[in-house]
What does this fold into?
Amino acid sequence: MSEGFLLSVSLSSIRLTAMNILATREHSKKELSDKLLKKYDQNNDDEINSLITLLLEQLIADNLLNEHRFVETFIRSKRRKGVGPVKIRHELVQKGIESELISDYLSDISNEEWLDEIKNQRIKKYGKELPSDNKDIIKQSRFLYQRGYPVDLINCVLYSKDIY
It folds into this structure.
């Protein structure tokens, strides 16, 4: 067998793996690269690295790997689960998404929408009654903060009776 044939078989097997990974959900370029490297590059081989880089460029050119689509899907999924913008931003940065792209998509969501989501999360966990003492305020603010909501919006929900 020739060396060119082995490379094409390797590229096609890597592509098949990538397509199987992409079939389950959208991925960022970094996520897909990490998964492919973990599977195929046990010896830190430059040849495999270059094949994976070439494959990623092909997938982007074919619009099978799309960072915009990934960010949009990721944000929608996290919002449905009650995750706030701070945590969403942090997770997207960890997945290799550029900060500017994250800001573009998060800025499309108004503060009023985030306030509604915070309010719904608080009511779902603690009921409609606002916290009366400092202990409850701290407990509820910690819960909302861990969900990834910004402090200013948390304070607005916990201290403002007119938003209910």
About this structure: The CA atoms of residues 78 and 88 lie 7 Å apart. Residues 1-9 have pLDDT under 50 and may be disordered.
